[in-house]
Fold this protein.
Amino acid sequence: MSVVVGLTGQSGAGKTTVSRVFEENGFGVINCDLIARRVTEDGSDCNRELSQFFPLCFDKDLHLDRAAMAKIVFSDKEKLGLLNSVIFKYINEEIGREIERLSESHAYILLDAPTLFEAGADKLCHYTVAVIAQESIRLKRITVRDRLDEQAVKKRFSSQHDEKFFKENCGYLITNDRTPKEAAEETVRIIKIIKERENGKYKT
């Protein structure tokens, strides 16, 4: 079985940049945002179950209104927990299948999962890496990227783990407050350590 590295972190910290570096260094990448999209396609079993709890977010064809769902769950932690309790079951099943598939062609796999710990997917990983950045920087990145107002973004932040959580629970941290080049260099350094650990060459 391949070595699985879990990548997580704060919204707007730059996980996409870091994920790309892992891929460039031979990792097969599982993008959990894409998996979440896949399991919530129109008419899916996941949507059918979610529609029982969030009927106003679906039409008769079980199409998910993502904006309506986001408005609900990012303002109510209990509703977010309910959403997660349903969707994570389907996501984790897909992750398991993807790990099995990629293991046939890759010695190393990156599990790019913003909600790695919430989903319990960290249990599938041999190593965990978190990307963090100052809130002001992340706020600016997301308002530009997603065209959201600051209040909506701050609500999203409040529903997520803080920097302290990632420092306490992840094996490696990448601070992406500066340039993409510096983040990439730090990522390469961590990749080298992980590969050397697996080959028994790493010395502290």
